[in-house]
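Incident log, entry 3
Record: ABC transporter ATP-binding protein (320 residues)
Problem: checksum mismatch between cached and fresh output.
Input:
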Amino acid sequence: MEPVVRTQGLTKDYGPVLALDSLDLEIGPGITGLVGANGAGKSTLLKILLGLVPATGGRAQVLGHDIASDGPAIRAAVGYLPEHDCLPPDVSASDFVVHMAMMSGLPRVAARERAAEVLRHVGLAEERYRPMGGYSTGMKQKAKLAQALAHDPRLVLLDEPTNGLDPAAREEMLGLVQRIGRDFGIAVIVTSHLLGELERVSDHVVVLDGGRLLRASRTDEFLDATGVLLVEVLGDDAQARMVAALSLAGVTTAPRGAMLTVDAAAGERDVHDLIRDTASDLGLGLVRLQVDHRHIEDVFADGSGAVTQPSADPREVTHD
Ligand SMILES: Nc1ncnc2c1ncn2[C@@H]1O[C@H](COP(=O)(O)OP(=O)(O)OP(=O)(O)O)[C@@H](O)[C@H]1O
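Fresh output:
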């Protein structure tokens, strides 16, 4: 499938600060989470793709258009939710989105219809007629999302759309991101400095670290089983008795909070049965027995400084 974004050796320095360091990347359709700690280069990458900031080296194409020569064509096909507050406080969301739609070339009547539609999609109802200066952070993020969708883009770049939101608003925003990608079929690149946040909604994850590509792969490949089972047992001295019995059976365990991790390298099914039988023999209640999964954070814990090529087997990490 044709990538929506491709970069070759893309580099950006702000004087002495190297924000992007020779980045080779391919991003396909669907929802892609672009994650990395603060300062990893996420916002810089999005701004370069839009032509808002010039690269200092390398090349990039967005939807087949070259960023060096086709900026207007890219901006016509791409929606952008910027990270920082950029909304005029005295203007209503409704007027703002109509204005943005007209700026993108829609006639006034079509712009009004489109604005009403996207504001409804993002869940801004009556408030859309109020000046945005009085909005909560969640409402402001929704207004920013609505303007990103106003001109019916093929790709949206969402820079930290959940930043500053409380847990309920964060969930709502992630739900909207998911709908844009899955229900509307728009390609989405969404950034977050919370590494695990996008696991649930993204099809692919790209991890940046210090302006370099740390890893790019399908989200489910990040979450591969680790070969470890998580076990929780209840009863008198339950953990210690379980550890003793399992180690007699030659199985390695380690405590993790109220739970035990059990190495299932011997064969997940066999160890699964062994745990169940052992708990039963000891008269302990088996509260939890599940496969442990990796999380995106584990990539930073395991492989800092490691780089994979996006086209290569994403599980194969080559060290510098
Ligand atoms: N206009 C600028 N002038 C100088 N340095 C900058 C500028 N913009 C970004 N930087 C630096 O470039 C690096 C990458 O910043 P960038 O904003 O792209 O990272 P980020 O991953 O989006 O992080 P954040 O979530 O904190 O914005 C950082 O070290 C940042 O301080």
